[in-house]
Amino acid sequence: VDVVELEEGGVRAMEVLHAGRANPLDDPRVRLHLNDGRNVLLRARHARGDGGWDLIASPPSHPWLIGAANLFTEEFFGLARDALRPGGAFALWVNGFRTDREALLAMMNSFERVFPGALVADVSENHGRSAFLLLGQRDPAPLDPERMARRLAASELVPLLAHHRLDGVPALLARFEGPVSAFARQAGGARNTDDNAFVETRIPRRLAWHGLDWPRIESALPDDVP
Description:
There is one protein chain. By secondary structure, the chain is α/β, with parallel strands linked by helices. It has helices at 8-17, 37-46, 74-82, 101-114, 145-152, 158-163, 169-173, 180-184, 198-202, 214-219; strands at 2-5, 31-34, 53-58, 84-95, 119-122, 131-137, 176-179. Strands 3-4-6-5-7 form a five-stranded mixed sheet.
């Protein structure tokens, strides 16, 4: 497992948070890189074969913050896809805080362009839709409930799943909102790229907006969307 962290304070925080118990960063299977995540993927691309991960998970801060915004662009998604092994998957956490409908849809549109067949899941801890996972595969494949059930039954996962109130495949599938493509069609062609910085330049002008209007997005979906 390769862990990439830009801020040394984040590593020190792990030591505090895990005081008196096992720190995941001390696991011999884990390699810590004090670096920028996008830079690591870029170096992997230029190394022509260096890397090759089965899963890449990217949980950066708000998509409109300087320093984090370029981890939500089409070009970054392309770097992640190129760094995946065949059958690999990419998971992007998107925080809906102070993110409006147009910004979220632009990110979804760019994500779908790089990862056709992607899915969006609700990972909000509280009421309402405030956090999402965009899930893309290098080689799109349908969800396999039987395989999912076998993986969820792993003893080391049971406590973690219980903490998030996920007691089986139905509870997990209930988190899925639908295919990203269905939402991306509402974007009206808007994309979030390095060159247009759509989200990074849009949201700071609208900091008074405090809630993502998810019902408006959901109500615009066609009736036949799964």
